[in-house]
Design brief:
Elements: E1 12-13, E2 20-25, E3 28-34, E4 41-47, H1 52-59, E5 73-78, E6 84-89, H2 96-103, H3 109-128, E7 141-143, E8 149-151, H4 157-168, H5 194-210, H6 221-226, H7 234-237, H8 244-254, H9 269-274, H10 280-339
Parallel strand pairs: 1-5
Antiparallel strand pairs: 2-3, 3-4, 4-6, 5-6, 7-8
Helix pairs in contact: 3-5, 5-8
The structure holds adenosine-5'-diphosphate and magnesium ion.
Residues 22-27, 30, 43, 45, 88, 90-91, 94-95, 139-140, 142, 152-153 line the site of adenosine-5'-diphosphate (ADP).
């Protein structure tokens, strides 16, 4: 099957089972579904009407699956009502953002260095293919079962231009995007180039290693960024972690106000990761075990709550019946005593 008028997707995907919504973002809703023929789960991003042209744009990036750190795009979904969406691999571990929420802080250092390195490799790959990402942030860096990076939402370029111009006119642009935008991007005549992504990468590094969102509580992020303000590195520099100084140095070079002074290709992360790679297995296991424990604890709390609700639901009517029964009994016995 071919998609008339679309740049290049291999085919339309139709045979999907029930769709379960897993999240929503600026461009649409994301669902998990089982492909009836393939037998494995995929993610389907159903785009909002005004962003639907993007479906086909990203659909034309399917060949990028040759980089293991870039999310695999399977094709374009066509629903029964004619709705269109983008079908990609489903990432059950979520994103760096969900990892940060679960850990309430930075991941173990070997994993932090691995996330940084794999994201750098994915960025270098896209840039080599002349694709600028323009929306690099923790929730676009998805994680596979083993917590390896799968960079998502690349190819938003045309949509991102409109996001950028919307942000220029508003003081409260969508959080999580403004913070990752370089100062020059607020200029009306700005044309996105790879230095945009290099800047976003530096803020992303800061967020991964500090385990925090940049500029919390700032209402004037745009003004602060254009004035040269950047996230504070004092806490990072005080850490006793091998390679942290070199990492902060890389961060600072990547967030230079002058885009020409930023690195063109990201090279340093490999050496930094190699200092910690011997401990990566242990770090991943530690996070996954912690994760499973958390799920188990949540299940226990949930089942306790459920049983409390069920017991209350059963006891309340029983309690009412008993009260009525005792009252009736009391009235009867009172009358009986009086009659006597
Ligand atoms: N392929 C996927 N597998 C699993 N979860 C995904 C996938 N793509 C997106 N998500 C999740 O769906 C939610 C919305 O994603 P998205 O629409 O890309 O938001 P945004 O526009 O903010 O990037 C996020 O929580 C993201 O982690
Ligand atoms: Mg996204």
């Amino acid at each position: 099957q071919t998609c008339g008028g679309c740049p290049s997707p291999n085919g339309l995907i139709e045979h999907l089972g029930d769709m379960l919504e897993v999240g929503s973002g600026g461009f649409g809703r994301v669902y998990k579904a089982r492909h009836k023929d393939w037998g494995f789960d995929v993610a389907v991003k159903i785009l909002k009407e005004d962003a639907s042209h993007y479906t086909f744009k990203e659909g034309s990036f399917m060949d990028l699956a040759s980089c293991e750190f870039v999310l695999r795009v399977h094709g374009v979904y066509k629903g029964p009502l004619g709705e269109r969406g983008l079908v990609t691999d489903y990432m059950s571990r979520g994103s760096i953002e969900s990892l940060q929420t679960k850990l309430s802080g930075p991941p173990p250092w070997p994993l932090a260095f691995q996330l940084a390195h794999q994201t750098a490799l994915a960025m270098n790959f896209l840039h080599h293919k002349n694709i600028v990402h323009l929306d690099l942030k923790p929730n676009n860096i998805l994680l596979n079962d083993e917590l390896n990076v799968r960079l998502a939402d690349f190819g938003l370029s045309t949509v991102s231009k409109s996001v950028v111009s919307d942000n220029r006119n508003s003081h409260t642009g969508p959080q999580g995007t403004l913070q990752y935008m370089p100062p020059e991007a607020f200029d009306l005549s700005y044309n996105p180039v790879r230095a945009f992504d290099i800047y976003s990468f530096s803020i992303l590094l800061w967020s991964i290693f500090s385990g925090k969102e940049p500029y919390p509580g700032y209402s004037i992020v745009k003004a602060r960024i254009t004035e040269g303000d950047r996230p504070d590195c004092k806490d990072l520099l005080s850490l006793n972690v091998d390679g942290i100084r070199a990492l902060v140095d890389l961060m600072k070079r990547c967030w230079e106000g002058d885009p020409d002074k930023r690195p063109y290709i990201l090279k340093t992360t490999e050496e930094l990761f190699s200092r910690h790679s011997d401990n990566i297995r242990r770090a991943v296991d530690e996070v996954l075990i912690n994760w499973i424990d958390q799920i188990r604890r949540n299940h226990i709390i949930l089942s306790h709550r459920m049983s409390t609700v069920v017991i209350t639901a059963l006891l309340t009517p029983l309690h009412k019946c008993c009260t009525i029964f005792i009252s009736i009994l009391f009235c009867f016995s009172f009358n009986w005593v009086r009659e006597k």
